[in-house]
């Protein structure tokens, strides 16, 4: 599923969010918003013998409520892996100039998530909004097969607006960004 976050606000506050969510490897990490226990991160299931895996799974279940990092991530992040192929872009040209003149700036993150459960994913973005209450965070998402998509806007940890669509034509109506993924079909 493709996701887009647009963050709007005063430049120094936006910069604080950029610094908060980035790691050495990626411009946006879910782990910076809700950190997975380090012991779970260090579990590499492929390299563990069966009995050792069972012992680690029991330990993880007892300490963290989940046997594997994947199950933990799915509950707390709504997806089994961290943001993949994250891209950070800043406004450019006239849009960027207008943002500077109004003492406001916007940035955009585009990233993919896999095996997403939206009920779990939205609280992750909502928590980010609570951490940066003076910023407006717009979250757009789309899954092309099967088609569904939506848009949510957060401020101060509150969801101000929400739309979720499940047909290709309805998704297209959400925004020009959604339209690039799901042009309408004449027969819907």
Description of the structure:
This protein is α+β, with helices and mostly antiparallel strands and 188 residues long. It has 2 domains: 2-29 and 83-179, Alpha-Beta Plaits (2-Layer Sandwich), CATH 3.30.70.1270; 38-77, no CATH class. The chain contains 8 helices and 6 strands. Strands 2-3-1-4-5-6 form a 6-stranded antiparallel β-sheet. A hairpin with a 2-residue loop joins strand 4 and strand 5 (147-155). Helix 4 (69-77) packs across helix 6. The two termini are 22 Å apart.
What does the secondary structure layout of this molecule look like, with pairings?
Elements: E1 2-9, H1 11-21, H2 38-41, H3 50-64, H4 69-77, E2 84-90, H5 93-101, E3 105-112, H6 118-131, E4 136-144, E5 147-155, E6 158-165, H7 168-174, H8 176-179
Antiparallel strand pairs: 1-3, 1-4, 2-3, 4-5, 5-6
Helix pairs in contact: 4-6
Order of helices and strands: EHHHHEHEHEEEHH
Helix content: 25-40%
Task: Tell me what the CATH architecture of the largest domain is.
Answer: 2-Layer Sandwich
How many runs of DSSP E, i.e. beta strands?
6
Q: Tell me the strand order in the biggest sheet.
A: 2-3-1-4-5-6
Termini Cα gap:
22 Å
Radius of gyration in whole Å, from Cα? 19 Å
Tell me about the largest β-sheet: 6 strands, antiparallel
What's the structural domain tally? 2
- Overall pLDDT confidence: 77
CATH homologous superfamily placement of the largest domain: Api92-like domains
Percentage of residues in strands: 25-35%
- Class from helix and strand fractions: alpha+beta
Summarize the structure.
The chain is α+β, with helices and mostly antiparallel strands.
